[in-house]
Amino acid sequence: MPDYTFSDRLKHAWNAFTSRDPTPPLQPTVYGGFSYRPDRLYYYRGGERSVVSSIITRIAIDVAAIDIKHVKMDDEGRYLQDMKSGLNNVLTLEANIDQTSRDFKQDLVQSLLEEGSICAVPVETSIDPRHSDSYQINTMRIGKVVQWYPQHVKVDLYNDQNGKHQEVTLPKKMVAVIENPLYSVMNEPNSTLQRLIRKLALLDVVDEQSSSGKLDLIIQLPYVVKSQTRKDQAEERRKQIETQLTGSKYGIAYTDGTERITQLNRPVENNLLKQVEYLTNMVYGQLGITDEVLKGTADEKTMLNYYNRTIEPILSAISLEFKRKFLTKTARSQGQSIEFYRDPFRLVPVNDMAEIADKFTRNEIMTSNEIRQVIGMKPSDDPKADELNNSNLYSDPSAGMPMDEPLEEPMPEEENPGDIPISEIMN
Could you say which of 162, 195, 315, 371 has the lowest number of CB atoms within 10 Å? Predict the structure, then answer.
């Protein structure tokens, strides 16, 4: 993408809210403050969200920990270098005035899993993206889709100029519309996750009823309660016992010797808890998550399965949509791409690091300084530490190339004692 000078930005810069130059006035207006962070999307739901929120938060944190970059690839599709662009700055450093790149990615995934579909909107760009595809992205935010149109979307977006959420209608070609790959499992009205949320809500209602503080008593009076007079007497007797219990310091009341009291506040048996456990295990299985993943005690194979089945589809959906919407055909033909890279050494124990480092350097996959960077050590000043060579092989100083160790000189062949000249035999 072309570089723009400051004067070009003043002439062509564009803002999604004002549709004009976003340069603030000399005396910026300070709007009213908030007791909470207004740019975040809040989900005001019941306590049944506890299990679901832990799953969504875990996935969002793991996705945000993986690098997504605007990179240059060679003709074979191999990584060459990072691109120095506004989009790469959004993905690796700062997305907007409120969020770092990691906060932005976590917000993106969390909103994606909650809503099912969200938009990543370039708020400030170098030129108007409605009239040209060659623009630099300066800031970007996550918006909630309010209304769908054939060629446009209405997005609920936070405006950091006035501190309010506003609805703006934008063309689909200039915003990244991302859909949750696990939509049918998490966001469909009758999906497994939504059924789990409803069952958890019912379980919370039953728990509130059982712990409401009621005594649930039945008083058996020594006479038959059929006539209206007897009913009035029974009602008066009930009120007397209530008054005794509420007016007593320790909640003690007395009854007649002929009266009998039965307490009913025992737990009512139902299968809600079993259904919740069944649906929770089903959600874990369909999302590729286990209890060990949430607790942080999963082994390497379990984490690999989790990354391949859950994390990778979300990352692919994000990177492909960013590549499709924010890179022109010319940029893609030049080898530019949006790729994600996961650190393969993050789950490796320290005991195995030495063996892995030896294999990677011996097979000329990584240099010594690259290995030192992985384990958190500063680079070595030795020039050999930046060279891809096998230190176990003999190096020829004159040629500067490693070579195999020379073999020992072969022993001279001994004469075959069986080959005797004919003259010696005759003598």
Answer: 162
